[in-house]
């Protein structure tokens, strides 16, 4: 659907301002649907990823990991699908030098080197890719995710944390290059939060995609102080080494605990059962079981629970239906005004 053919809904003569905070593979699904439903989107993306192509590039070039940023740029781009396919192309395993790398990751890394910071690089690439909206890395410097487990042990690094298969007590972020430096969100991130109609958390890995953003101190302060409604899109499946045995209420409780206040206003919960034996656990090896429901617990953690069939099944995977989720987000934006 072209931009000119979208249904335009406005708040006080303008498009609804939606800030989405997160990372991982679930985020672009929601962003693409919000994009097609004409929201004015700002995506705030984690820079604490240390796995896959992003992690390898980060180790060799010392730049912010580009993978999540790449996927978000594509989800908001009005560029020709043929060009986007090139940007997303990942070299095959037999290409030993480039094996596993996406072309977009290499372009982001190159622009970051040229501009000497990830924020300016992403803004330049956003113009080149005809991005409708804003894509903001949460910080200009690479961040390291740290976790303390219930047994008192401490581990650094997203991959190491989830690999422990232990219950996480809390997480925090540190500057990868300077442990003494306080991680800080760029001013544009703070301004977007202050100006938002609604702020969306997720979907995505709770401890490794959502909380790394919220643990940047000036971002969490802005989130606590702003007047926008905060919506959390609860995950459909639990994840190994992160949310094993978690209910939907447990997810929300962890967010509120890390923020130090009950800041989540609305939670979107999928009510449609996941068919038995549908999910390909080899392909989606991070998933475990459907998230259990605890509606009494949810009501104690937030103001509003919206339960609906948000399930989308394809490619033997379990996903959110982006269009249904986007409509609920925009409904909340209009109702809050």
TrEMBL record:
Keywords on record: Cytoplasm
Residue ranges of coiled coil: none
Protein localization: Cytoplasm
Annotated CDD domains: YvcK_like
Pfam family, one: CofD
Entry-linked InterPro entries: CofD, CofD-like_dom_sf, Gluconeogen_factor, Heat_shock_70_CS
Known function: Required for morphogenesis under gluconeogenic growth conditions.
Similarity remark: Belongs to the heat shock protein 70 family. Belongs to the gluconeogenesis factor family.
Name of the molecule in the record: Putative gluconeogenesis factor
Species name: Lapidilactobacillus achengensis
């Amino acid at each position: 659907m072209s931009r000119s053919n979208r249904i335009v809904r406005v708040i006080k003569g303008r498009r609804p301002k939606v800030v989405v905070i997160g990372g991982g593979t679930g985020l672009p699904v929601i962003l693409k649907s919000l994009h097609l439903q004409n929201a004015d989107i700002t995506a705030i993306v984690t820079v604490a990823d240390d796995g896959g192509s992003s992690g390898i590039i980060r180790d060799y070039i010392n730049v912010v990991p580009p993978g999540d940023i790449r996927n978000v740029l594509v989800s908001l781009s009005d560029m020709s699908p043929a060009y986007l396919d090139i940007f997303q192309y990942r070299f095959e395993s037999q290409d030993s030098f480039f094996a596993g790398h996406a072309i977009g990751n290499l372009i982001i890394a190159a622009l970051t080197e040229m501009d000497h910071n990830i924020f300016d690089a992403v803004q330049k690439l956003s113009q080149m890719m005809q991005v409708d909206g804003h894509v903001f890395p949460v910080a200009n410097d690479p961040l390291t995710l740290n976790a303390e487990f219930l047994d008192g042990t401490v581990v650094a690094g997203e991959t190491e944390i989830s690999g422990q298969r232990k219950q996480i007590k809390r997480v925090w972020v540190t500057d990868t290059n300077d442990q003494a430096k306080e991680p800080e969100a760029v001013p544009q991130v703070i301004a977007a939060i202050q100006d938002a109609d609604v702020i969306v958390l997720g979907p995505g890995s709770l401890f490794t995609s959502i909380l790394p953003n919220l643990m940047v101190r000036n971002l969490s302060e802005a989130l606590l102080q702003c007047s926008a409604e905060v919506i959390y899109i609860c995950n459909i499946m639990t994840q190994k080494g992160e949310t094993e045995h978690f209910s939907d209420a447990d997810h929300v409780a962890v967010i509120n605990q890390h923020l130090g206040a009950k800041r989540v206003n609305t939670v979107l919960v999928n009510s449609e059962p996941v068919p038995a034996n549908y999910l390909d656990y080899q392909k989606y090896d991070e998933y475990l079981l459907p998230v259990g429901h605890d509606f009494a617990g949810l009501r104690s953690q937030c103001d509003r629970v919206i339960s609906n069939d948000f399930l989308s099944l394809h490619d033997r995977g379990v996903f959110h239906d982006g269009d249904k989720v986007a409509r609920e987000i925009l409904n909340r934006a209009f109702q809050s005004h």
